[in-house]
Structure formats: structure tokens, C-alpha cells
Amino acid sequence: MVAGKMKKAFALFWQGGDSTLPGYRLSLTVTLVWTGFFIILPLFALALRPWQNGFGMVLNELHDTRMFAALWTSFSSAVAAALLNIPLGLFLAWMLVRGHLPGRKMADALIDLPLAIPTAVSGITLATLYSPRGWLGAPLSKIGIDVAYTRTGIVLALMFVGLPFMVRTIEPVLKNLPHELEEAARLLGARPRQVIGRVLLAPLIPTVITGFGLAFARGMGEYGSVIFIAGNQPFKSEIAPLLIVVRLQEFDYSGATAIALILLLISFLSLIFVGAVRKKLSVWTSAS
Amino acid sequence: MTRFFLWCATWGLIGLVLLMPPAVILAEALSHGIMPALKTLQDPDGIAAIELTLEVTVVAVVLNTIFGILAAWLLTRFRFPGRGLLLVLVELPLSISPVVSGLVWLLLFGAQGWWGSALDRMGIQIAFAVPGIILATLFVTLPYVVRTLIPLMEQQGRDAEEAATLAGAGFWQILFRVTLPGARVALFSGVLMTTARAMGEFGAVSVVSGHIPGLTETMPLHIESLYNGYQTVAAFTMAALLAFMSMTVVFLRSLPDFMNRTREDPS
């Protein structure tokens, strides 16, 4: 029974299902070789490396308080930046879709700017902009807010790189929301706050969560745009990806790999969490 | 009145958050005038960095475009066991930290890696050399062409291709005469995203590069060493050049859209 199923599955795999189109074996071979070398092999190396020096070493890594401090810095900054990007993203997306904004096309193109500027360039630019003598850093430090070389700087850098993810996730969904709903609610006597809260925001919740997940995942692993503005002080303003680089410079490959694996795990968990929440909410919104 | 206030708020926000950084790049690069800025570009290490970036980008774009087309063909035209897993695998590099994308190649080819010392004895160096930079760049740019092609080719359907098969066309003929012409906008966009990411990649390349000026420094890495060496004008001039290249490539994506609109719209 099982053998028969296996045989059938293998036959399907060998023939490429019921498609009559050519090129199956060629494209299968190329895809398997390429993903095998570039994805599966590196993942194996990553998963096996910490165990190479014995189980004791793995336990040892788990006592590394500097590692947990760095992971916490990355995690909390990524969450803060993604949360702060929610109102910003909603506002910008709404203005782009419904706001009749003068120069809308220009504004729309500019949203992609953080994605278009290479991370190292964003990094040195934001560090200069928010430095105590920078255009924005100087006025901020006068009112007592230090941005550069602090956690605030990390959060601001992550907000910059994460903003396009939020806007670009919300924008298409908002565009497809029937405009009549808002007008109907208004005609039925809903106050502006009710229109925004119940008609506009409620159906957007799953989308906002997706945008949050994307921005968070990006922020958790972000390196180039952060390291120049963060002070990189251990236990204070050192992000996890930077600690990987530090460990590599100390030739501590196992230590570096341990952090890498935890980062990988967190980004998988956030993807799974986002998927699960979306599924649940979409069932709930379509039922009501 | 409210509307006017909202417009001002929106453009103020865009100016503050999005336009300020490019303005800073230009201001810093030109802080001593245009000639000193241009002069920094004549530095041999800078020229070597530009050349290396272009080389790596060309290799990554060519190889990942070939792979991307074949993988998209496989994943949209056939249903077979394991397809779902492959769909997840080809998107995986997008959710991996750039630093980790570099680290994996050290685990394989570094001095302490699985094959590093064996290859070293044969005189082949991959980590801390150009091949390592290319591997890391290929890894981070792997998903872009596939993931822009898949939704479009899925939507295209197989009817035209099945008809071509019945008419006796071979695989390459179908691919180049039927499938790709229909998907050319998506392909173009995927290629451009690959180019932009390959040129600007920093974290992954930084881990495997070894940072030897003139030899293993790409443009982003050279910007870092100039900036850390307090050569602000040189750092921001190189940054302006790289940002300009990358922004041009990203904004070219809306070119087909723009051209179609002007063609259809007689006004």
C-alpha cells in the first residue's frame, strides 16, 4: 500500500505530473542542482556546525549573555520600529490611495527610496544626518534627545528601511476596498472616527499584520543601515548580526553559527505566526 | 482646509523621512565643491571597487536569470511531488539576514570550514577572495527573477504553449517565442531587482570579503572603509555614485508601465 503510493509519487516526480509541455527534466535538473548547492547545502552547514564540537559546546553557547543581549537589542528594536511604522504606513498608504495628493505619482515612487538606496549608503547617511552635528541630530540633541550611537538610532534606521514594506503591503489592499463602504457609513450617520476605525481599519488588520511581519523580519536581520548609527557597545547597542561578525573576527565559528541559527529560527517563527494570524483573521472577517 | 493640512503633513513627512537622506549624501559629497569630489573617484582602489562591483553584478544577474527562468518554468508548468517545498526554498534567501548569507559560505569554504583547507592545499581560495563574494551575491539575489516570474506565468496559463507543442515546437522555441515575450515586463523587473541588490549588497559580501583594498572590496565595502577612515568626501562621493546607479535601476522598473500608458493614451 505504502510502497504503491511511493511508486506513484516517484512516477509523478519523474514525469512531471500530467503536463504535456516539454522541458521538465531539464528545468528540474537545473533547479535541483542550483537550489541544492545554494540553499540546501548552506542550510545543512549552518544546522550541523554547532554540534561539530560536541554537545557540551552547544550548552556553553547558551550561557553567552552577550549573545542574548544582542539578540534582545535586535528583537526589541525591530518590534519597536515595525510598530511605529504601522501608523506611518497607514497614513501614507491612505494619502496615496484616497488623499488626492498633489504629486501623487512622485510620492508613490519616493516610497521605494529606502529599498533603492544600498544599505551601507543608508547607514553612513543616517549616521551623518542624526549625528550631534547633523541636520536633524543637532536640533534633536538641543531638546535632549540623543539619536546617534543609541538604541533610538537603531530604531530610526530600522524604521527607514522597513517603511516601504508597510506602505507597499497596505496600498494594494486599500485600493481594492470599495470606496462605497466609506461613503455608505458616512451617509448612515457614522462619525469620522467610526468610519476610520470600523470601516477602514478593521478590514486592514490582516494586511497590517503582514506588513508588520515583513518589516520585523527585515529589521531583525538588518546590518548595513544600522551598524554606523548604532554605538555597537556590547550589552547596550550591539545588534545580533554585528555580534556574528565580531565572533567571526575572533575565529569563533561555533559562536557565530549559534547566533545565526537563532536569527533564522526567529524569522521562520515570525513568518509562521503571520501566516497563522492572517488565516484566522481572514476566516473571521469573511464570516462576519 | 483639513485636506490642505493633510497634504502638507504628507509631503512634510516624505521630505523629512525619505528626501533628507539623498540630500545629505549630495551635501556631504559636494561639501568641498565638485572638483575635490570628482578627484576622489580617480583613486585606484576606488576604480578597482567599481570594476569588481560591475563584474560581480554581471555574473549574478546572468546566472540567476537563467536559473530563474528555468525554475519558474518548472514551478508553474508542472505539478509534481515536492513542488511546494521548492517554492519555499527559492524564496528562502529573502528571509535570511545578510550576515548569515555570508556566514554560510565561510562554514563551507573558510579556513575552518568543511572544504576550506582541502581547497587551500589545491591552491584554490574561495573565502576572503572574489569567488566567495560571487557566491554570497548569488545567494542573496537568487529569489528575485523566480518570484517576479511565477505569479505572471501562473496567470498566463499553458494554453498557448500546449498549442505550440502540438504544432511541433521544441522547448527552447516555446520558451523564447511564446512564454518569455508574454512575461517580458515581469522578467525585466526581476532582472532589475537582481541588479540593484547585487550592486548594493553589503552584509553578506562584507563577511566573506576579507576587505583587501583594490582586490576584494566592492563599492559598498569601499564606502565603509573610506567612512571609517574619516575620508568623508570620498566616502559620500562613492555613496552618491552607488546610490545613483541603484536608484536608476530600481526606477527603470516603472519604464514599461510608463511607455504603455503613453502609447494607449493619445492625449
What percentage of amino acids of chain A are in beta strands?
under 5%
Query: Mean pLDDT score of chain B, rounded?
Result: 90
Q: N-to-C SSE series of chain B?
A: HHHHHHHHHHHHHHH
Give the ordered list of helices and strands of chain A.
HHHHHHHHHHHHHHH
Shape of chain B: globular
Enumerate the spans of chain B where pLDDT stays under 50 for 5 or more consecutive residues: none
Give the structural class of chain A.
mainly alpha
**Number of E-type strands of chain B:** 0
Share in helix of chain A? over 70%
Which CATH architecture of chain B would you pick?
A: Orthogonal Bundle
Overall pLDDT metric of chain A: 87
Tally of individual domains of chain B:
1
Pfam families (chain B): BPD_transp_1 (PF00528)
Protein name (chain B): Sulfate ABC transporter permease subunit
Main location (chain B): membrane
Subcellular location (chain B): Cell membrane
Keywords:
heterodimer, A: mainly alpha, MetI-like fold, globular, B: mainly alpha, transmembrane (chain B)
Q: Summed up, what is this model?
A:
The complex is a heterodimer of chains A (288) and B (267). With 288 residues, chain A is mainly α. Helices cover 76% and strands 0% of the residues of chain A.
